[in-house]
Amino acid sequence: MDAKPEATVRANWAGNYTYRAVSALEPATVEELQQLLPALRHAKALGARHSFNSIADTAGSQISLAHFKSISLDTSDPSHPTVTIDAGVTYGELAPWLHAQGFAVPNLASLPHISVIGACVTATHGSGIANQCLSAAVSALDLVTASGELLRLSRSARPDIFPGVVVALGALGIVTSLTLDLSPTFQIAQTVYENLPFSELEHNLHDIFAAGYSVSLFTDWQQHRATQAWVKRKVDNPEPQSDSETFFRATRQTAKLHPLPCHSAESCTEQLTAGPWQERLPHFRMDFTPSSGAELQSEYFVPLSEGFNAIRAVEELRDRITPHLFITELRTIAADDLWLSMAYARDSLAIHFTWRPEPEAVFALLPLIEAQLAPFAARPHWGKLFSTQADTLRRLYPKFSAFRELPARLDPHGKFRNDYLAALLE
Questions:
Q1: Are residues 112 and 50 in the same domain?
Q2: Which domain holds residue 104?
Q3: What are 223-233's pLDDT values in tens digits?
Q4: Where does a domain end: 184, 219, 239?
Q5: Burial tier of 417 (Cβ tally within 10 Å: 0-12, 13-18, 19+)
Q6: CATH number at residue 57
Q7: Which helix (H) or strand (E) holds 82?
Q8: How many CB atoms are closer than 10 A to CB 98?
Q9: Contact present, 298 and 366 (Cβ < 8 Å)
């Protein structure tokens, strides 16, 4: 059976990258995908198109799994509930379904619009000093290889390679489903404070980011301060909270705010009342255009222990950065064991840049920022804009040589290797 062509999407979500793929296909079933792949010379899975670079592009066919929408709960082991989802499911679809069943995933990204699988294969993350990246919840996955073989891989059955399979950047095949570990559902209260001095971070960085289940600081890099601090705390009930009027010298706000000045807060999740985890952990609501819309993004991960020094290093470029910046967000992510996770083996501070849609200026700035962060072994987010060279990237990941063996074994002829991967894996 031939896969149905989809209406070819020629650009990513932000509109900054135009795909070069010669065709786009949309199989309806796993069996159809298995029949399709052997006949293709080059192929790549296409998710929610939220990457800002060429990671999802190909010289051949992009394959959308938008029809793959199954969600299945497994509570046969009450001490270890899981959910298995198909590749087309987004967090905005999964999270409310899980909450209705009494469950949750431990963490969510700031945008619910992204596909779960796309987030996991790139080690995309939420926030929280004790929360690992989204990929860390994966306990099993189904993968269709270049030959059309369907592999079921799990942490329990293949602990030797599973940490290298979860965050694989699309290099091993097309993931058709994931199994995620779950926790009981919970409530979050979100409070926003304004104007937190950076001087508070020098001695209190850990305490600031440990003050909630998830904490984000926003800054425009001017005036040596975070413009806003979003503190998301676990609570036992949705009753109004009596939060402190100050937070490390920042002032609690009583009106809902957007991270970007002059933007309506209507698109943001609720801040003045407690509510279910899936309605508070993301910054933006599913039914609105997230963030600014027309934007570019970059992000770098440094050891949490070096967080303040890394912030100060970037701050030296403030007058170069601010004219081209919408906002920077500072978040923490707990260490994990996933070979290509940006938080592999180290608790991390993520320094995220949401740029104005000015690619020439942004690409001129990236090498300057990367030079400032080089002493901290900064790892760029795989799905966002960076200029770090492939040989440097390989050195940043202690298990990179072990990872390189996986595509050599599962995709020996390079069906899933695009320009992005070719540079990295050469």
A1: no
A2: 71-184
A3: 999 999 999 99
A4: 184
A5: buried
A6: 3.30.43.10
A7: strand 82-86
A8: 25
A9: yes
